[in-house]
Amino acid sequence: MSEKKKCDSSQGCDSCGESNTCSEEEKQAQREGRVNEKLSHIDHRIMVMSGKGGVGKSTVTANLAVSLARRGYEVGILDGDVHGPNIPKMLGLDKEKLIGTAEGMLPVPLYPNLKVLSMAFMLPNTDAPVVWRGPMKHGIFQQFLGEVEWGDLDYLIVDLPPGTGDEPLSIAHLIGEVDGSVVVTTPQEVALLDSRKAVVFSRMVHVPVIGIVENMSGFQCPHCGKEIELFKVGGGEKAAIDLQVPFLGRIPLDPQIVSDCDGGKPFIATHPESPASKAFEEITDRVEQFVNRRAKKEPLSRPATEGRRVFSGLGEKFK
Q: Is the whole model's pTM more than 0.70, yes or no?
């Protein structure tokens, strides 16, 4: 009887000719080892959550990631919403497909320092539904983290689906050491009730809460300039005070955000002087400060010109 070949940790079970001789426990250990190896190249991992849908969580994810990339960081976005993956559409990548290599799948680049991975890149068309139960979703997340060539990242931003079910549990379990969660809500009471559940869930899975973002917070009338409280104002800040977590900021309602998301343009890059973009920047400041305080180190050292150089042609690209 021939001696069993030693497991090659750089190779996935699917591409290994010896995997049929391995037990399920050995295969699972191999997959977990690959996830841990990939995660060792990622400095900070952040989950963006919401208690309910329709509050703008993916919009916050996309603009937070673009804001960090504009500062020169190496950033990855993992679209964790298997059933409704919207990040590619928001960033103009909805026609892209994943490319496989001998080392693993390659995330789709938006810019030289911003990479995106989404279930949308694997679907035959935009109307195709994903009809999966929990174990299959856990398996795809394990692949997204262990069989994708993310490279060296400063930040991995995970856009989670609404609620506190399978996907947040799987991601928190697989990533292990999550730097923190950003909880997105709108000011109305129904959204706030669910956002409070997201904060409690984050604590239950031992993920620090970076803070609450209040989206769609007030609308400035284009005719008289008066602020109109379409969905109320201040509920997110009150929830943060009640739950004793930081309040990261208010993002005003801006119709241009909707237009840019539908057109696949990062709002923070195409309208950097708008009040909403300035709110996104302030939120990014607070997220960055939280992460660096938790890591007990100075901000990652990157020349200030690097981010600007990467985005030097951004305005032309999105005209």
A: yes
* CATH, range 37-183+254-296+306-317: 3.40.50.300
Straight-line distance from the first to the last Cα atom of the chain, in angstroms, rounded to the nearest whole number: 66
pLDDT confidence bin for 21, thresholds 50/70/90: low
Q: Which of 10-14, 124-128, 241-245, 255-259 is least confident?
A: 10-14
Judge whether 95 and 121 are in contact, CB under 8 Å.
no
Query: Over 90: is that where the pLDDT of 200 sits?
Result: yes
pLDDT tens for 115-169 read 999 999 999 998 999 998 888 999 999 999 999 999 999 999 999 999 888 888 9
Domain spans in the chain, listed from the N-terminal domain onward: 37-183+254-296+306-317
Q: How far apart are CA 82 and CA 160, in angstroms?
A: 9
**Residue 205, token pair as written in the block:** 């899975």
Task: Name which of 74, 144, 145 is nearest 114 in CA terms.
Answer: 74
Which residues, including other chains, have CB under 8 Å from residue 147's CB and lie 6 or more apart? 12, 34, 104, 105
**SS3 category, 231:** coil
Phi, psi of 215 (to 5 degrees): -95, 160
Query: What distance in Å separates the CA atoms of residue 98 and residue 122, rounded to the nearest whole number?
Result: 7
Helix axes 275-295 and 57-70, enclosed angle (nearest 10): 70
Helix count (H) and strand count (E) of the chain?
A: 12, 12
Torsion region of 118: left, alpha or beta (phi above 0 gives left; psi -120 to 50 gives alpha):
beta
Task: Judge contact between 287 and 182, C-beta under 8 A.
Answer: yes
